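Sample entry (300 residues):
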Amino acid sequence: METMTLPGARQRFVYYPETDGEPMAETDTHRNLMIDLIVALSKYFNDDPHVYVSGNLLLYYEEGNPAKSFSPDVFVVKGIEKKERPIYKLWEETKAPDVIIELTSKTTRLEDMGMKKGLYAALGVKEYFIFDPFSEYLKPHLRGYRLSGDEYALIKGKRIMSKELGLELKVEGESLRLYEVFSGKKLLTPAETAKAKEVAEKAKEEAEKKLEEARLARKQRAENEKQARLAMAQATRESRQTAKEEARQKLEETRLDKKHKVESERLAREAKAQADRQARVAAKEEALQKAEETKRARLA
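Predicted structure, serialized as tokens:
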């Protein structure tokens, strides 16, 4: 329940409904387009706290008269607080929308091209765009108007620009798309945003996977290099140990050979000495025997 005080009158209650009982859009295409445009514009102006984007919202333009209302498909108001509103009351907000976009059809043709066009100009809506997705009567599909004085002037040229939004409006099939004028970047629909997010997340996962694979590869390479160094060090130690053992064995063999030679020489000397002693004994015995024989011969 809304309240209002009129000059010279008692306070009375005026009810401003939040719905007019009309369907949101003519067709699924109209509804989807409206939602896509509202979401895209809301995201585009997300960081500006003084730009309000809405659509299919009742806008009351005469205080105390609930019959004086309309519900634009899409509209943008600059210079007011960004907040949720159940309805839009022109006398409280103190300004009309800067831009209105209507998604038209043959059933709303007279209203969109007649009454609304005149009303929007009278209220001071700076830019008014009409899009006919099925090209039921507008050829080309899109038409734009810019306020000049108290009347609308047709925006001419191949490119339809919104000075108020800083965007270019383009027809793509049955869709109305918005592009940033300077960057040429397209404003994405919710479905495209979700797809882009999915692609970005997948790319991120792939990048993280590749980074992890690279990390593991570096780790494995480092481990392989470490094992190679350890193996080389082990092989070097074993080689040195083998060489040392071979040298020791050669020294031992040399020592044993020398010892054996010395022992052999000693045994040879002892054998020779033994033979010499035996020869002397034999010679002595032989001499004694001869002497004995000579003695016996003399005695005989």
